[in-house]
Amino acid sequence: MNQAEIETALKAAFKECENALCPLSEEQKEIIRQKVLESYGYLPNSQENPLNQLTTAQRQALLTFIKTQQDQNLSWKATLLNDWLNNEDSGGVQFIRDQYGVAWLDQVQPIHVDQFLLQEKQKPLEVGDRIEICNGLWEWVQEDSPCPPEWFPCVVVGVSEVVDKDVRYTSCIVRFDTGVEFEIQGVYEWNQSYWRALK
Q1: Is the pTM of this model over 0.85?
Q2: So where are the chain's domains?
Q3: Which of 68, 92, 137, 142 could form a disulfide bond with 61, CB atoms 3.0-4.6 angstroms apart?
Q4: Average pLDDT of the segment spanning 115-140
Q5: Rounded to 5 degrees, what angle do the CA atoms 166, 65, 172 make?
Q6: Which residue, 106, 98, 50, is CA-closest to 77?
Q7: What does the radius of gyration of the chain's CA atoms come to, in whole angstroms?
Q8: For the packed helices 76-85 and 56-71, what is the interaxial angle rounded to 10 degrees?
């Protein structure tokens, strides 16, 4: 299901609740909406990934810490909070307490962490890699519609990390077989579903 289909189904369910004389409050509707969207891998528009605020080195340190805690079946957030409550140093992730604090930590949800852990599993793009990109990058396409997604082969000719104010993302320039070049911003962040390795 895409995000629009999920929203439509939720609105229908909320309407059925009203018709059954069991209306939900706006707060309840929003909680359900967010949890359903998260379960399908969508981040609500108003909820940007807080890990984007970290530098690459900070994010890597945090992800390493999280993986270590998970390997020991420990909650990484609980470990950090216990360190803070006991006024103990948190080692390589002490910067979270010093620079970001509890409010930032509270914003980090499993879907945010999963976004970056998935990126780590994927081999980073390099100049010369052959990939396919979807026309959904430059036009509106939808499965089972008159304009279905199409995939075009191309070669990676440039990869760079971009810093735009407080947001960091990876940009990639590809060249099609026709010689035309195209830039994919957020190639690992928000446009990851629009490209794939060429088989």
Answers
A1: no
A2: 3-39, 50-121, 130-197
A3: 92
A4: 80
A5: 45
A6: 106
A7: 21
A8: 100
Tell me the per-residue pLDDT of 72-111, one tens digit each, with 9 for 90 and over. 999 999 999 999 999 999 999 999 999 998 889 988 888 8
Residues ≥6 apart with Cβ < 8 Å to 132: 151, 152, 153, 154, 195, 196, 197, 198
> Can you give the pLDDT at residue 153?
93
Phi and psi (nearest 5°) for 155? -125, 140
Q: What are the tens digits of pLDDT across the range 150-175?
A: 888 999 999 988 777 767 788 899 99
Sign of CA dihedral 177, 181, 187, 193: negative
CA distance 187 to 196: 10
At 10, list the tokens: 């939720």
Outline where the chain has alpha helix (H).
3-19, 26-39, 56-71, 76-85, 94-95, 101-107, 110-121
User: What per-residue string of b and e applies to 57-89 under the rule 16 or more CB within 10 Å gives b?
Assistant: ebeebbbebbeebeeeeeebeebbbebbeeeee
Instruction: Indicate whether 148 pLDDT > 70.
Output: yes
**Upper half-sphere CA count for residue 87 (Cβ side, 13 Å):** 0
